[in-house]
Amino acid sequence: MNDTNAPFSEQEKDGFYRAIHERRDVRSHFLPDPIPSPVLSRLLDAAHHAPSVGFMQPWDFMLIDSLDVRRQVHGIFLRENEKAAANYSGERFRTYRSLKLEGILESPMNLCITCDRTRGGDHVLGRNSIIDMDLFSTCLAVQNFWLAARAEGIGVGWVSILDQDELAEVLGLPESVYPLAYLCLGYVSEFLDRPELAGKGWRQRLPLTDLVHSNGWGRPLNDPALLQALDEVAETHS
Amino acid sequence: MNDTNAPFSEQEKDGFYRAIHERRDVRSHFLPDPIPSPVLSRLLDAAHHAPSVGFMQPWDFMLIDSLDVRRQVHGIFLRENEKAAANYSGERFRTYRSLKLEGILESPMNLCITCDRTRGGDHVLGRNSIIDMDLFSTCLAVQNFWLAARAEGIGVGWVSILDQDELAEVLGLPESVYPLAYLCLGYVSEFLDRPELAGKGWRQRLPLTDLVHSNGWGRPLNDPALLQALDEVAETHS
C-alpha cells in the first residue's frame, strides 16, 4: 500500500500522464475479444471514484452486450447522423461522410453511464446554485472510466449522435434518469498517435497559450516563466 | 518515449490508479506555497488533452491569483451559501454549518475553467443531437486537471455554490462563455484517506454492485464472475 501523502514517484507520474496523453476517442480498430471481469470491474470502480457534488454519486452503469439492444441504438444513430450530415456541403460534406463516428456493433461491449437526477433527495449539498452539477459530476465519472480503460489497453468511444429520449426508451430508463454518455468499448488493434479528427484534417489542436487568461477574460498572462513553460509543455505533446 | 501501443507496465498502472483513488475534493488543508510554472503548465496541458466533441476544445483557463477578484468571488459564495443552508434544519443544519465548503481565499490560486459555446462555429461534429456536449467535454477537461493535480501533490476543490451570472460578470466573460468550474488549488498539508463528506457522516459511498445493470435499467447482472470481481474491487477501495 502507498502512503496516501507520499509524493508520486517519477514512474507513477509517468504512468498517469501516459494515460492522459495516449487516450483516444476510438471509433475504428475495435477487436472482438471480451473484456475480462477483473479488468471491467477496475474500470467501473475507477468511474465510481470520481468526485460528485455532495457525494451524490448520481451515476449508474448500463452494460450492454445484447446485439438486439445495440442494433436498436445503432438505428437511432443512423437516423440522427442523417440529420447531422445535412449541415455540411461540398468538400466538408464528403469529409464528414468519410469519418467513422461510432463502433456500436463492432465493439464487444457498450456502456451507458446515466445520471439519476433525483438521487440524494431534494437538497443535495453544493447543488443549490447550479442544478446541472449532477450531470457535470457524471461526466467526471466518464473521464475516470475513459482514462482507466486506456491504462488497461481498452479503447473507448463516446457516441453523441443519438436522440436521448429514444435511447432512454430503449434502455427502459425511469423519467428521472438521463442517459448522459453512450460509450463503445473494447480492446483495439492500435491507438492512433493523435486524435483522428486532427489526422483526417477536420480540426487541429488549439495552441494552449491562447487559452490561458489572467484574472479575467482576455487579460494576458504577465508571467514570462509560465508562458515559457506552457510553450515547452505544448511542444512535447501534439 | 513510450511506444503508444505497448501495454502499460504494472508500475504505470499503479501510478494511474493511485491518482484515481487518492484524489480528493479539497476545501481545507491548503498551504500558501505557490505552484511552480512547470507544474502548473503540466496540469493545464493535461486538461487541454481531454476529449471534446468534434475536437471542439471549448475550454479556456482563467488563472486567478488576484486577491481582489477572489474576494469578490468569495462574496458570491457567502450569499449563495446562506440560501443553501436554509434548506436544512436541526442536526442536518448544524452539520451543514460545520462543513468547510470552499478554499477561495486560503488557496494560493483559483482557476475558472470556462466553456465557449460558440467555438468551432455553427455545426460542431457530434453536437447536433445533444447541444450540451460542449459543457460535458469541458467537464472531462476538469477531471484531467484534477487528477493531474493529485499526481503532482496539489489539492483541488470545486466550488459549486456560486451564482454563475455573477461569477461571469466578475470575470468579464463574453455572453457565449459559461463559467463551468470554479476551482481552488494549492499544495496541501494532507490528502484525507477518504472523502470528507463520508468522514463527517454526511453521506457514504454507494455499493458499486447496486449501480451496475445489464442491458437495461434494473436488469440484474447474470454474470457471477463479474459480480464477484465487482465485490472484490469495491472492498479494496473505500
From TrEMBL, chains A, B:
Taxonomic source organism: Aidingimonas halophila
Any GO MF annotation of the entry: oxidoreductase activity
UniProt name for this protein: Cob(II)yrinic acid a,c-diamide reductase
Superkingdom classification of source: Bacteria
Nitroreductase domain residues: 20-187
NCBIfam families linked to this entry: BluB
Keywords assigned: Flavoprotein, FMN, Oxidoreductase
InterPro entries noted in UniProt: BluB (IPR012825), Nitroreductase (IPR029479), Nitroreductase-like (IPR000415), Nitroreductase/BluB (IPR050627)
Range of residues in the leader sequence: none
Pfam family for this entry, one: Nitroreductase
